[in-house]
Amino acid sequence: MTNLKDIACFLLLLVSAIPLNQTLAAEVHFGTDVVPILTKLGCDSGGCHGKATGQNGFKLSLFGFEPEVDYDALVTDSKGRRLNYAAPDHSLLLLKATSRVPHGGGRRLDESSDDYQILREWIAQGATAPRANDPRLIRIELSPNQQVLKPNATQQLRVTAFFSDGKSREVTRQAVYQSNEPNIANVEADGLVTTTSQHGLVSVMARFGEQIATFHAAVPFASDPTKMAAAQKQLDQLEPKLGASSFDRHLLAQWRRMGVVPSSPADDATFLRRATIDICGTLPTNEEVTEFLADTRSDKRARLIDRLLERPEYASYFTLKWADILQNRGAGYSTSKQRAGTTLFAAWIRDSLAANKPYDRFVSEIITASGSQNENPPAIWYRAVRKSPEYVESVSQAFLGVRVQCAQCHHHPTERWSQSDYFGLAAVFSRVGRKGGFADAEVPTDEIIFLKDRGDVLHPRTGELLKPRPLGGTEFSLGLHDDPRNSLARWMTSADNPFFARTMANRMWAHFLGRGIVHPIDDARSTNPPSNPELLDALAQDFIASGFDVKHLIRVITSSYAYGLESAPHPGNSGDTQTFARFYPRRVTAEVLLDGISQVLEVPTNFPGVAAGTRAIDLPDENVAAHFLDVFGRPARMSACECERVDSPALTQALELVNSAEIQRKLTEKTGYAQQLAASDKSHTELANALFLRVLARQARPEELKAAVDFLTSEPDRPEACRSLLWSLLATNEFLFNH
Amino acid sequence: MLELETVSPGFGNKTRRAFLQAGFLGIGSLTLADLLTLQAKAAVKPVQSDTAVILLWCGGGPSQLETYDMKPDAPSEIRGPMNAIKSNVLGINVCELLPHHAQVAEKFTIIRSVSHGHAGHPDGTFRFTSGFGQDKVGGLLSSESKHPCITAVVNRALGITRNGMPVSLDLSSGYRWYGSPGYWGEMYRVPVASRGLENWRLQVKPGQLEDRRSLLTQFDRLRSDLDHSGNLKAMGYFQQQATEILLSNKAHEAFDVSKEDPKLRERYGVEWGEQCLVARRLVERGVNMVTVHVPGRAPGSMGKNYDWDDHAVNWDLIEAMRDRLPFYDRTVATLIEDLHQRGLNKKVLLLVTGEFGRTPRVDNNSPGRFGRDHYPAAMSMLISGGKGPLGTVIGATNSKAEYPVDRPLDPDDIRATLLHHLGIDYTQELPDNAGRPLPLCYGRHLSEWA
Lengths: 739, 450
Description:
The structure holds 2 protein chains of 2 kinds.
Chain A: H1 2-25, H2 30-40, H3 67-75, H4 92-97, H5 114-124, E1 137-143, E2 146-148, E3 154-156, E4 158-163, E5 168-170, E6 176-179, E7 185-187, E8 192-195, E9 200-208, E10 211-219, H6 225-238, H7 246-258, H8 268-280, H9 286-294, H10 300-310, H11 312-325, H12 336-354, H13 359-367, E11 371-372, H14 381-384, H15 388-400, H16 419-428, E12 432-438, E13 445-451, E14 457-458, E15 465-466, H17 484-493, H18 500-513, H19 533-545, H20 550-558, E16 586-587, H21 590-601, H22 627-631, H23 651-659, H24 661-668, H25 673-679, H26 684-696, H27 702-714, H28 718-730, H29 733-736, E17 737-738
Parallel strand pairs in A: 2-10
Antiparallel strand pairs in A: 1-4, 3-8, 4-5, 6-9, 7-8, 9-10, 11-13, 12-13, 14-15, 16-17
Helix pairs in contact in A: 2-5, 7-19, 8-10, 11-12, 13-17, 15-16, 18-19, 18-20, 23-24, 25-28, 26-27, 26-28
Chain B: H1 16-24, H2 32-41, E1 52-57, H3 76-79, E2 84-86, E3 93-95, H4 99-103, E4 109-114, H5 121-130, E5 136-137, E6 140-141, H6 150-158, E7 161-162, E8 165-166, E9 168-170, H7 206-219, H8 231-247, H9 250-255, H10 262-268, H11 272-284, E10 289-293, H12 317-341, E11 348-353, E12 357-358, E13 374-375, E14 379-385, E15 392-394, E16 396-397, E17 404-406, H13 411-421, E18 429-431, E19 437-439
Parallel strand pairs in B: 1-10, 1-11, 4-15, 9-10
Antiparallel strand pairs in B: 2-3, 4-14, 5-6, 7-8, 11-14, 12-13, 16-17, 18-19
Helix pairs in contact in B: 1-7, 11-12
């Protein structure tokens, strides 16, 4: 491996040495020669001189996106002390970079390197400023741009830059690289990609100046032709079992490409629990389990999904999800009047979901909402989302699946978004006006949203007036009285919009399969491609064709072969986290977990300030005090990112499960299930069977039954034995996770 | 390894104890490799740190001119009525109300040249502890820092507990703007132990917990390799840690100061003074970071100076200093001496600071009262321990304590020094909620701490 790498580097040096000498003979251009070196060396990175305040008085633009700023910083700032034209080697820039004078960032540059020579030559030539007619960078090309690789293998990438004067040159050494899955492949500063022992899909981004390009690699699970042939044979046998839908075909095609064999289908009890949690945020009852297991009809899973979608808990559970995304935030408001606002918005979301309002209408009604928030509840979205960055970022993340925040201050470093894109979208909302409203806190409630006569948005750097336009689109043509938000809604919901339907299809896929086809779900980029583009396209097209029917989308996803798989891997798909060749388990969310514990123990949680018996999934907003929900990751609704909801385990969660007064109360409550069970005349075996069915929604296995019966026999205190058994089942990963 | 499914309980023996022990053996066997994998899940380079930080937080913003940056030659409207006294180290002068400091000056260092631009209490606290000031979110000034503060960084890098002990603790709910985990979420919030570790006390009898754990081991058959995110493993690990904490007395012992020498206890004093003693006991037992909140008034005082926010409208600054400094002086000096005497001074880095300094020009808004307003452009702090120098002064302000003239430093540099002392590579970057990569800490650690 090392040898290969050495050879690759050597070859690279040979190739690049020739054009380099020619470059030196010619004029050194600041924008295309000097700035990329500063970027490559990390000088203008966000942790160093590139951050907003600079570092020790020397400030560069982040990633060199503003060469004219960098020119001033190097040439004129600090009385020009950074360059020494008479003795270029004594320029502070070079003394610092080579650490010949103390440099907080250490030694970044070798005196014998080409980069040093280029910087030195630029100074010696008199530090020529960037000029309007300098060649501009048009695009870069990565070669190769896709490849099938083996584990523990290497692949050298080459980057070629193309300039406006028709010239091109190799910039492999000056480009910056980043892998989106470092556990599958890493990339070194010289563009050498090295795969690990893991299998899967990986993308490596290269950036030079403002231009980016992506290399896509697949590391199949079947790592040699024999294993690949064996995997294909197994997949041949599987093929007839898959549904006829294009979705299952796309999954299979991916499994074939990757030589991965999916896990076995999950059993009925597992599927029932899984679907009931994912659709209704609720655990199945004993009766539901018994009935479902006894049902012999071949379409019983599809019938189950249909039943679940008609239950009120479906609307409740997805209201919770949308209230997070739409930031229906209660914090900061103290009066009942303001709580009424969040309740109103949550009720509107719930009604929309229960009525299966088409998704395009649901979103349009929100972003175009005007009038009194009391009379038109979707306008309450404008209560938490108040200013230009919030409009742009919430709309982009929630409905378009992209993160554009970076472009507020500088060109997006891993995507094409510029500040013009960002502020063009901001201009759509710049005429949103507010009046009235009741304010006893910092944010008023019941405002009236209206269209102001004007609201100018200027490009923060050029000062140019920016007209409303959608991301990556052209300016809207608007009459004086046209609300730009209507144009945005039409653009978003049109059948050929590249973001809208895909984002929703991906969001729902991630909800049910535990991971988006684009992952993270709101971070679609050319440098972060979907793991199965055909599948995502097919889902999006089908969603559009259905008239944005959300329940239809849920039926499609939950009837996919992938959703019915077991979570346990086998040797043929071990390590799979991207191709949905098994069900990826995840911790049950805070509200569902707390409701589940209450349901099992038949003791409701008492939340302050809401009606007794209110379930956690029905709480009006996140500002209802509940320590359990906070430690299990209930989000504060500060952004439209679903990532705010944390599902990772924590010590505080374990302490809550193991030792909280709340769970102890539920276990000891006189009317609770533990006491009922202890008081019943059930035999040890009956009692143990009832417990497993109730908590884990399945029959006890013989060895588990024996362990429970042994314990009941050994523990003379029957109520305590019931409590201990219930507690231990509630603390199992099998209960805490949806699997 | 944490392979619960491979544990075969073997229930042949019907005796209760044997039954329980069979199950109980299955837990508690997480290897170091597992631990490091779990830490690595936090996407921070895993570290095992045997060093510690004690941070005494003087919320409200102590005046540099009445503590560690005396300007006896400045005009009276700047220097105020307090005099400077010489310490046992040539060149280190402190406020006349800090005589104990003056006797141990060879055991600490004063930093006089830290400045920033965030003058509100939450704003300044967020800036000092997280690197970022207060944001407006949805029109609301965030009441908690949106960015993770240093205690969360320590938790994320070092784990939340180790061997039945917390990694980081805040000894009182003290200053409400301190300690936010920001967008990292609740799991990285520093545990607050205002009344000992009450929430870490067992709700059931120890035997009952053991029963429950052993049953859990037998029922928890879900294979932990199902999930490559590591969440299944981690949940098992944290449950095991929680049990260890609940069954161990180690953490509770640290709070029991009754076995300490009464004379030493007396020198530390009560309330936050005693918390300083607890802090020392905690770091001795392996805790990596302890925060003690230093209120603005001495124990037992009825003054209105509940924090260090000495505007004339609140109270008289000089009166407040006369009230708080004698106790503060003795407690801080005792902690410094105690750490040295026990040979803990290399292991433990002590920092005493607030969120900002105070205006050099006296605030005359309330006649008859002496006050100073918020002033982040210059602040002083005390630091002692680790690899750093002792008995010296780092940096200087101008003649009126208005701004640094030598060695200008940012609070980020101070935080970087603490993290560096704990062995944490603070330059590593983690994405925020927008996917923007941010280092654990901007800034550079002071070169003296190498």
